[in-house]
């Protein structure tokens, strides 16, 4: 018997495999189901991660209060340093900084950050507005550092904001720089300009409103040199006042532009330079020299430097705290005292929600990607176990 015959005999006796006609189609369908399951799992994880990224910023930090009532917050929060980032040309980098002051409406409090950025807190909702004020001295920060913090001042009605300006135009190197005070209406955007000339320009250091918001007073220093990169002064400082509705300041020389200063509703300016001095028809009131405004009952609101800085008012029980201040909200803060009724001077507002930092966003994205990879590996393991069990 040949090998061929033996193989034929074995083949004839071998059982016949009965393979159903739909075996291939069933296997193909099973593969498609596995792939669909894997894709659906990945999509579900991606949706979950995307939803978490969108949900967390608005829920970790409470939203701004939604109310129509006007009031001064009982706590003022510092603005993160990342919001003060500047371009190479000195402009503000963040989209949250706006040149439209009308986004504020009525203001409750205002100050300048350590980086020279004006902040105004809305009185109706507690929203924090970062303003790019035209020609604000803080925009020329390399020069303004010689002044201390650049100056802004919120009027008692919360509607008007005064700030120091300096215009560095094409003639700045050869002509005096136009300087002075501008007052902007935060509800309409209308602007009033009061020039304060002097030598190469006068650097305004302090601005104060009278309790009724009709008069302005200021101190400053005329500069012997002032460019976009440097400044220098010699000689006396100046004290000034601006009558209601006027666009010309009344100015006189004083010895020190850092002396405490105030102005009353009659235009009486008092300042302290060794002793209390008075310019105008009134008489000295030492309380006015340390106040940031007055309640409607006449009590001065004062800045108190303590373990936690605060604005306070004297009551029968002693000094009462009205508004606590985060570090970074300094003694230059001004508040709309017309919105502080003596019985309930402040209102509660939640902490503002700031955009995430690049580091925080990168970590969140990285954790999301890691979660997707882990989920994919887990689904792959489940599919393999499912197929092996069958």
From TrEMBL:
Spans traversing the lipid bilayer: 35-56, 361-383
Pfam family, any one: PD40
Keywords: Membrane, Transmembrane, Transmembrane helix
Keyword flag Membrane: yes
InterPro entries: WD40, WD40/YVTN_repeat-like_dom_sf
Name of protein: WD40 repeat domain-containing protein
């Amino acid at each position: 018997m040949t090998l061929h015959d033996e193989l034929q005999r074995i083949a004839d006796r071998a059982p016949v495999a009965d393979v159903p006609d739909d075996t291939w189609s069933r296997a193909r369908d099973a593969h498609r189901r596995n792939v669909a399951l894997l894709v659906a799992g990945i999509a579900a994880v991606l949706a979950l991660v995307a939803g978490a990224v969108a949900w967390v910023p608005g829920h970790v930090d409470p939203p701004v209060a939604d109310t129509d009532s006007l009031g001064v917050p009982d706590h003022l929060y510092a603005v993160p340093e990342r919001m003060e980032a500047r371009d190479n040309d000195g402009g503000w980098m963040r989209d949250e900084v706006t040149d439209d002051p009308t986004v504020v409406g009525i203001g409750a409090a205002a100050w300048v950050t350590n980086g020279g950025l004006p902040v105004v807190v809305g009185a109706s909702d507690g929203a924090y507005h970062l303003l790019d004020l035209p020609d604000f001295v803080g925009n020329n920060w390399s020069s303004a550092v010689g002044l201390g913090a650049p100056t802004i001042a919120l009027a008692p009605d919360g509607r008007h904001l005064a700030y120091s300006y300096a215009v560095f135009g094409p003639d700045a190197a050869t002509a005096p720089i136009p300087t002075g005070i501008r007052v902007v209406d935060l509800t309409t955007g209308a602007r009033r300009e009061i020039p304060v000339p002097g030598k190469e320009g006068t650097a305004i250091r302090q601005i104060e409103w009278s309790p009724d918001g009709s008069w302005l007073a200021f101190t400053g220093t005329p500069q012997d040199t002032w460019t976009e990169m440097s400044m220098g002064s010699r000689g006396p400082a100046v004290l000034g006042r601006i009558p209601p509705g006027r666009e010309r300041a009344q100015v006189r020389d004083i010895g020190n532009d850092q002396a405490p200063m105030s102005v009353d509703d009659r235009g009486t300016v008092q300042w302290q330079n060794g002793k209390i001095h008075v310019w105008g028809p009134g008489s000295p009131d030492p309380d006015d020299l340390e106040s940031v405004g007055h309640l409607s009952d006449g009590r001065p609101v004062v800045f108190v430097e303590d373990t936690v800085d605060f604005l306070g008012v004297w009551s029968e029980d002693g000094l009462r705290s009205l508004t606590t201040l985060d570090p970074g909200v300094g003694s230059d803060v001004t508040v709309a005292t017309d919105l502080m009724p003596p019985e309930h001077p402040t209102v509660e507002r939640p902490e503002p929600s700031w955009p995430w930092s690049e580091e925080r966003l990168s970590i969140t994205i990285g954790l999301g990607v890691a979660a997707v990879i882990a989920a994919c590996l887990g689904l792959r393991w489940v599919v393999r176990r499912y197929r092996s069990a069958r």
